[in-house]
Amino acid sequence: MEIIVLLKRVPATESMIGVADDGKSIKTDDLKWVVNPYDEFAVEEALRIKQTHGGTVTVLSVGSDKTAESIRTALAMGADKGILINDPATVNCDSLGTARVLAATIKALPYDLIISGMRAVDDDNYQVGPAVAEYLGIPHISMVIKEEISDGIIRCHRTVEGGTFVVEASLPALLTTQRGLNEPRYASLPGIMKAKKKPLEIKTLADIGLSTDDTGNPKTSIVGMKFPPERAGGKIIEGENAGAKAASLVKALVEEARIL
Amino acid sequence: MAEGVLAIAEQMDGVFKKAAIEAVSEGKRIAKNLGTTLTALVMGSNIEEMAKDLAKYGADRIVIADDPLLKNFLVDIYTDTATQIVESEHPAVIITGATSIGKDLCARLSARLDAALATDCVAIQIQKDQCRITRPMYGGKILADVVLEGFPKIIGIRPNAMGISESPAEGIMERFTPKIREGAMKFVEKTMDTGKVELTEADVIVSGGRGMGGPDYKIIEELASVLGGAVGASRSAVDEGWRPHSDQVGQTGKTVSPNLYIACGISGAIQHLAGMSSSKVIVAINKDPDAPIFSKADYGIVGDLFEVIPAITAEIKKNRG
Q1: Euclidean distance between CA atoms A138 and A131, whole angstroms
Q2: Extents of the domains making up chain B
Q3: Which architecture characterizes domain A2-215 according to CATH?
Q4: How many Å lie between the alpha carbon of A122 and the closest alpha carbon of chain B?
Q5: Of B12, B191, B199, the CB nearest to A164
Q6: Is the ipTM of this structure higher than 0.85?
């Protein structure tokens, strides 16, 4: 089983996000960067599938020099090799541009299964995984919480609002991970030592047969960023006991907030 | 020339998603602004009767793709069907609810059509040649203004963020026969939690966190039940195994915007606050007066949630006689 994991480096979810001086990007100083949590599920699931079915786990990312560290994290968890597309021309890629770069890279590789996070917790676009599958002409199943592979078919449980669907696809296929799929392992110390010697190829757009025409004209662009309206702390409801507080709250919700 | 607005109205087993009606309502508003018409698209099996309802929300035309193969959502044949309709209709704007299924379909469709996509939009400004939307990023910590170029533009609207409005229109029914066949995917079965209110669509959410102290959420469930709402949970409650992953509210769970959010025993980690700050009214109940959640809450009660929550439930019951 040749498995490719798509990985993105993102600010840790506990980060305070600030808007940069240009008004349309975030402040990146002092941010702690991590592997996108949904991509950690992807790495973990790939390692488990490899354990059952054998094969190779390749981690693929589009990013900068720093992204190599995130790929090393996945290698330390147990992935076999990494590929980083590091080219200044990808900086302004929108999700479709990124998907085009990923798909072009994957086309030159053997693969049975591609796993990506259902979304990255920075731009929250939910777009790259399915778009890669579309560009490769293979089926995809999103938001997977359980999978089983046999006889060239992957059967997945996927979440929808209020329930789950069970869906099958023939391999090669792409799946995107949903919280609940697994508990990602931590990299062990020997794992971290080994990861330093695992192959990590760095490529440019030219290496994968693309030019800036493929990435240079994003159809979506961020023109501004702002904070959501600040919520001021409201009133603390006082009262002699729980009953009195509850009565005041319900009264306020009915008469003041007019919500009940 | 691309023209008109196409609203894809998601249904399951003959019932429209709330987000589908929101998409049709918002689609109508956009169509009016552009001085054009709204076409609603319904895909499924045996959907003709239900599809007629969309006229009430402003659909000038209602296109149905009614085929046994479309009975359940499979992204491959749904994308094929939607693509064929887009290629025959040439809409300038495609709008749909950014549900799990809506997001899945839009992502694939955007790649197929090489079309700009923005999902989870909470505000949309479209003039003739300009389309600028607002959508949360970083789990709701930031609102980004995004410009979409080219045609069509695909817009997924965040469930519960835009209202439903009636705007009766003619709703001329048309059948579209898609050229589809079973592909590499197969639908096996579905399991739905009957009677459970979905978090992202709920008007009221009562969430419990670490302060619950264990998996017994009976008092939360009772309060949610009298309010006709849904039960949510903080990440720590989910990590403890007290609640399923699908209940998690926050940056790595669900982002919600109900009319009323009641946070019980939740201290208010930044990831949780990001996921619920767009709720209209927030109530926090916590025994720690310094809990960060109080800084975001419209109303706070400092106290023992095991006393306060049943008291609120009783008070609401009493109020309703």
Answers
A1: 10
A2: 5-175, 199-319
A3: 3-Layer(aba) Sandwich (3.40)
A4: 4
A5: B191
A6: yes
